[in-house]
Amino acid sequence: MSVPNLKIHREITPVSEEDSFLVFDRKKTVYDFPLHFHPEIELNFIADGKGLKRIVGDSIEEIDDIELVLIGSNQYHGWEQHKCASKTTREITIQFSEDMFNEHFLKRSIMRPLNYMLKNSSHGILFSKEISVQLYPRLSKVSSLSGIDYYLEMVSILFELATSKNQRFLSAIAKELDEFQNSDKIKSIYHFIHENYPSKITLNTLSNMLNMSDVTFNRFIKKRTGKTFIEYLNDVRVGYASLKLASSDLNISEIAYGCGFNSLTNFNRTFKKYKGTTPTEYRKNFNGIKKVL
């Protein structure tokens, strides 16, 4: 679902229909490119970037000296200079179309880890420092390869990432998508909440939709998502509030009530619980990258 009033740059990447993977390998002295999105999937590696601020969806974090992130199609993202004191950082960016691997290829049993990773890339995946360090030499050489060697090495790297341990999802809004793939009941609840999150939504309303008792429904959604109904609903509302705080000029009260919270106090308390920061502080963290091109 789209969120209104976003002020985010839609990047036109140079990936054509004839391309497989496009690689940018560069040294950077400053990070000032605006928050942006594009339909291509992006694998982004950064070395010597300690103190940079990474934004993926509604996630804002200060990064360590080395990191590797996979960003799905049309998920907005960006890096900001923030506290980074390094004079030069190394950035390797690899972009490819989301239809790079067709459905029949990904349905092969051996490709299940890759299929799962690509489906869940919509909310951004942060890989462990261990696998980032391990793959650094190979990523450094990708731009020097050509032909079938280039293609096979990229598939091999992606597969190794797909099977690596300690991956972490970044964006709360997109995080739920992978949990709804195999249940029509959950899909109907997901769409209903995302379409009606600004309005009052009760446990009884949703349980009636699925012909369940309130207790059975709460147990059902907890099993599927790991959250109670209230926890899940608040997660969705806080996610949309995060987008609006970062991308609109609405005041905090307007955002709170517009995202379904019945009081500003409740909104501030819930937001801090989920994000570890107040709405005001969260908005300030986007200063300097809120650009419209």
Descriptive report:
The protein is an alpha+beta fold. The protein has two domains: 9-173, Sandwich (Jelly Rolls), CATH 2.60.120.280; 178-284, Homeodomain-like (Arc Repressor Mutant, subunit A). It has twelve helices and eleven strands. It has helices at 103-106, 112-120, 129-142, 147-162, 172-175, 184-196, 203-209, 214-225, 229-247, 252-258, 264-275, 279-284; strands spanning 9-10, 22-28, 36-37, 41-47, 53-56, 59-62, 66-71, 77-80, 89-96, 125-126, 168-169. A hairpin with a 2-residue loop joins strand 5 and strand 6. Helix 2 (112-120) crosses helix 4, helix 3 runs antiparallel to helix 4 (147-162) and helix 7 crosses helix 8. It starts with 8 loop residues before the first strand and ends in a 9-residue tail after the last helix. The model is unreliable at 1-6, 175-182 and 287-293 (pLDDT under 50).
Comma- or semicolon-separated keywords:
11 strands; Jelly Rolls; disordered C terminus; 12 helices; Arc Repressor Mutant, subunit A; 293 residues; alpha+beta
- The number of strands is 11
For the record, the CATH architecture of the largest domain stands as: Sandwich
Largest sheet: 6 strands, antiparallel
Strand content: 15-25%
Structural class: alpha+beta
Q: Which fold name is given in CATH as the topology of the largest domain?
A: Jelly Rolls
Mean pLDDT, all residues: 84
Listing every helix as H and every strand as E from the N terminus to the C terminus, the arrangement reads EEEEEEEEEHHEHHEHHHHHHHH
How would you sum up the global shape? Answer: globular
- Spatial order of the strands in the main sheet? 2-9-4-7-10-11
How many domains make up the 3D coordinates? 2
Distance between the ends = 23 Å
Helical run tally? 12
Helix content: 40-55%
Radius of gyration: 20 Å
The CATH superfamily of the largest domain is known as: Regulatory protein AraC
